[in-house]
Design a protein that fits this description.
With 221 residues, this protein is an alpha/beta fold. It has a single domain (4-212), classed as P-loop containing nucleotide triphosphate hydrolases (Rossmann fold, 3-Layer(aba) Sandwich), CATH 3.40.50.300. It contains nine helices and eight strands. The chain has a five-stranded parallel β-sheet with strand order 2-3-1-4-8, with helices on both faces. A three-stranded antiparallel β-sheet has the order 6-5-7. A hairpin with a 5-residue loop joins strand 5 and strand 6 (137-139). Helix 1 (15-26) packs across helix 9 (198-212) and helix 2 crosses helix 3. The chain binds adenosine monophosphate. Adenosine monophosphate binds next to helix 2 and helix 3.
Length: 221
């Protein structure tokens, strides 16, 4: 059976970067609810306009809307058989319980929490820039306007302003407590230290996954 993973962590904990790398290494689909919402917002559709009201202020999108979007993306049996990595979902206890109710106990083999203290992620989010050309995520140095990788223009994510950052971090701490307790009660929670160089964090995460998910114990090249 292919790996099915949930990845959690405060905004700015490096989830997006680590999830993309881990999903590629494991050969599973990477589903980020934040990315799905931003793509929908960019289309300007009625759903996108509804999502934008929450995302731009740092509020959580209501559970029923989130669950519809996830169901549409996890609906494929082929995708589920290949394995998946859920990035940014579930974010609330109700979302986690709905996921396990619909897909059963096999909904996730492991829930990985990337742990980075709030004071560290606050500084990272304030410096975070996205390249408008290659979409890579960078920690901008003072006054830096161009991407080191491709020279594209760097911009701040629309929800990386001080108020929305504070709101998202507060909400994470409020919602994550009961969610983590519940995932732990299912016997699938592992917490990994997310402070340090991205390579070192990736090695820690991969080791935790390899130890817990039998399907990937064989080395993956
Ligand atoms: P992210 O890219 O994971 O930081 O998500 C960006 C924004 O999308 C969040 O601040 C929320 O507004 C929204 N969002 C993403 N995933 C969820 C979720 N599972 N539940 C509620 N809102 C979400």
């Amino acid at each position: 059976m292919a790996a099915r993973l949930i990845v959690l962590g405060r905004q700015g904990a490096g989830k997006g970067t680590q999830c993309a790398r881990l999903a590629t290494r494991l050969g599973v689909s990477h589903l980020s609810t934040g990315d799905l919402f931003r793509a929908e917002i960019a289309t300007g559709s009625p759903l996108g306009r509804q999502l934008d009201r929450y995302v731009s202020t740092g509020d959580l999108v209501p559970d029923d809307v989130v669950l519809d979007v996830v169901a549409a993306n996890l609906g494929s049996a082929a995708l589920r058989a290949r394995g998946y990595l859920l990035d940014g979902f579930p974010r609330t206890l109700a979302q986690a319980q709905a996921l396990f109710e619909v897909l059963g106990a096999g909904a996730a083999d492991l829930a990985l929490e990337i742990d980075v203290p709030v004071e560290v992620v606050g500084a990272r989010l304030a410096a975070r820039r996205i390249c408008t050309a290659c979409r890579s995520v960078a920690a901008a140095r003072d006054g830096q306007l161009r991407c080191d990788a491709c020279g594209g223009r760097l911009e701040r994510r629309a929800d990386d302003h001080d108020e929305a950052i504070a709101r998202r971090l507060w909400l994470y701490d409020e919602q994550a407590g009961p969610l983590l307790v519940w995932l732990d009660s299912q016997g699938i929670l592992v917490t990994v230290d997310g402070v340090g160089r991205p390579d070192a964090v990736h090695d820690r995460i991969y080791a935790a996954v390899a130890q817990r998910v039998p399907a990937i114990r064989a080395p993956v090249t």
